[in-house]
Amino acid sequence: MSYQKNIIILYDLFQSRKVVKTSDIERLLNVCKRTAYRYVNALLRANIPISYDESVKGYRLYKNKLNKTSLNLESNLLILIALKNLSNRVNKYYKQKIDNLTLKLLSNQEYEVEEIISIYDNYIIQDSKTSDISSMISLKMIQSAISFKKKIKISTNNEKNIEEVNLISDPQIIFKNDWEVSEYKITNDNNNKIKDILQVTIE
What we know:
This protein is of the alpha+beta class.
């Protein structure tokens, strides 16, 4: 994970919790104690008003908290667990997006749920026969883009197995022996089969 992304996640963590301990930073970002201190110092250099509180052995952010989601702890845990399960049933492209979202949600929790989630990770069964649902996600992304009149970018592998990204300004779904996506009112033999799409990004 990049340095800049870790800084953003750490800032979200300070916004969410009254106290952030060094051990929280180490566990959430999977870094050593020295690196955790380096991230805290980076926020201090950026004039983020945080300071160490000896009475609680942790850091506090002296700033009004952002408005938080109305979801309770149970709801947040269910979402996080669902994301963890989903992450193990998709290709690497969607997995990276889902894992980043999971990390962002973890950093935005008032409660320290990282340990609960990490324990849960140990119970996820890696079944090689579990079906990959990446195509279903791609289809839902495309359908949403059509409904809300959004552009999409689709990633596919070309004949040389090199990833290519194409922009579709006005997508449509058609069926020709298989489900495909193309520009609206434009059909040809070069349409992209949904099952071959690596990922869809809504613009």
